[in-house]
Amino acid sequence: MTSTPRIERLEIDDAIRRWAAAHHLPDAHLTRWLALAHEDRVVLREMAETLHLRTGQLVAAFELLEEIALRARVTIAAIIASTEIHRIIDGAGSAPGRARDLLDTLRSRRFPRLHRMTARLGKEIAALGLPGGIRVVLPKDLSSDEVRIELCARGGADMLRLIDVVANARAGLGRIADLTGAADSIEDEV
């Protein structure tokens, strides 16, 4: 006669396999998921179902969770049980919005220096006080040192005004470009 915990584990594994099949999760990820400790498998499945994660979101969250767990020497279940993550999973709002918040939070935990640099650049841009027709666009995840300035003008006079504002803000914009280039030196998080 089989024990109840063994039956529960088989049921969880079957539920994980059903989720993986329904979402076309690659076999390599399914194998890694099933190789986790029981508690980690359970909370990962509950998170995926609660937030209605898409396949790519699960893969990204799973990889971030594994990396955080390895670096912090904790379990995936412990990470998910943390107040910050648990609040996102059980919080109000749409599931897609909470899934995005989850990934953003996991990325900031996995890459804290990158997160701090992104926040600093955001403050620098805000401090420039640029009008609505000017947008400073940073590279995604600061993956390059390119900074774009986008102008959206209504007519020639508006365009000339925005160009003058950009010219007057050149020192601050140069500082932002230099800081973006410095983000390439963030090495301890690879």
Task: Give a brief outline of the structure.
The protein has 190 residues and is mainly α.
List keywords for this structure.
190 residues, single chain, mainly alpha, 2 strands, 68% helix
Structural topology:
Layout: H1 4-22, H2 27-34, H3 38-50, H4 55-72, H5 76-81, H6 83-90, H7 95-110, H8 112-127, E1 134-137, E2 148-151, H9 156-168, H10 170-182
Antiparallel strand pairs: 1-2
Please, could you describe this protein's structure?
By secondary structure, the protein is mostly helical. The protein has 2 domains: 107 residues, no CATH class; 74 residues, no CATH class. Helix content is 68%, strand content 4%. The chain contains 10 helices and 2 strands. It has a two-stranded antiparallel sheet with strand order 1-2. Helix 1 runs antiparallel to helix 2 and helix 6 packs antiparallel against helix 7. The longest helix is centred in the N-terminal third of the chain and has 19 residues. It starts with a helix and ends in an 8-residue tail after the last helix. The relative contact order is 0.08. The mean pLDDT is 89.
